[in-house]
Amino acid sequence: MPPLQRGALPPVVGFIDMDCFYVAVERARDPRLLGKPCAVVQYPTGQRGRPDLRPEDDRWRTGGPMGGIIAVSYEARARGVTRQMSGAEAKKVCPEVILVQVPTAFGKADLQIYKDAGDAVVDLLASRCDATEKRSVDEVAIDITGAAEHLLASRAAAELGAAASAATHLADSALSVDAAKVTRSSARQGHDKQQSRDTSELADGWEEVLRRAASDPVAWRLIAGAVVVKELRQQVESTLGFTCSGGVATNKVLAKLGCGLHKPNQQTLLLPHAAPVLLKDLPLDRLPGLGGDFGQAVKSRHFADFAACWVVGLGSGSLVGRNHRYERFLESVETC
Ligand code: DCP
């Protein structure tokens, strides 16, 4: 293993995204939902004046107005249920789907159980990370440079390589590049490319990566980071009962991008040399800040062929706080 040069190398950044999070929270509270097609629905309009539904009440909706869907289990996604549907529409495409309504307080949705669960995840991650940055109710960027360096100093290289390669997709594997071509909206609905976990596909490219990493300290630290993320994900599942997906890279934009390639309950390593390959055909809406109409306008007016290397050049960025360089880029294209 090459010698470590603390401070001279880019950080090791992880990204954690919980799988179908509100559903997972409901499943941890009610194991009858495990393995079943189910979805969480927002409270239906006209709820005011009705008694509140506390978290501990029976919140399954079997009739009447069913509200709109805000989270869908992967089992229900496989049967055609999507977040754009109303509960009634979901029942039509998948009659066996179980709909759980969010709790209410004072006639309004009460999201406290989901917020508490997200905070519990951050607290657990913080125990082994240099810094954590909550990006949404169920997404966390983590600086795991110290934990990766600790593993490099305390475990044999062969052991780390074996652990990382057994659990981690490479972002430039054929499977990942294929997954990257899917737009954000279809990725969210779940598709077969996301869910393939064939171990021979996981092994694709790893032998070469490990051989090259022997003389590449940046790559070695990221490989150790993949082991850290694998262990953290296992800890989250065994302690809190939630599965999550993970990404590892040298900055949070790329770590998030890697994280979204393979869900649920999988993880992806984005080594620096893999970024241009991955970003070449990436739909712009997969990058943070470039989803929706703005991303479309940027693409059509400025980047028919998106400048992937620019994103790689974000470098380390700051993990905690805002990534000013990326934001300046977004502002500059907006005003072009
Ligand atoms: N959420 C919401 N309203 C939306 C979108 C999401 O209330 N319009 C809530 C429910 C989700 C949670 O936020 O469970 C996290 O949203 P994500 O977009 O991360 O999606 P999921 O975690 O549900 O699924 P995935 O496994 O695809 O990340």
Task: Provide structural commentary.
With 336 residues, this protein is an alpha/beta fold. Helices cover 46% and strands 13% of the residues. The chain is built from 17 helices and eleven strands. The protein has helices at 21-29, 74-78, 87-93, 112-126, 145-154, 157-167, 174-180, 184-189, 192-195, 199-203, 206-213, 217-240, 252-261, 275-279, 292-301, 308-312, 324-335, and strands spanning 13-18, 38-41, 69-72, 98-101, 104-105, 108-109, 131-136, 139-143, 169-170, 244-249, 267-269. Strand 10 (244-249), helix 13 and strand 11 form a beta-alpha-beta unit. It is globular, with a radius of gyration of 21 Å. Bound molecules: 2'-deoxycytidine-5'-triphosphate (DCP). 2'-deoxycytidine-5'-triphosphate is lined by residues 17-22, 70-71, 137-138, 188, 263-264.
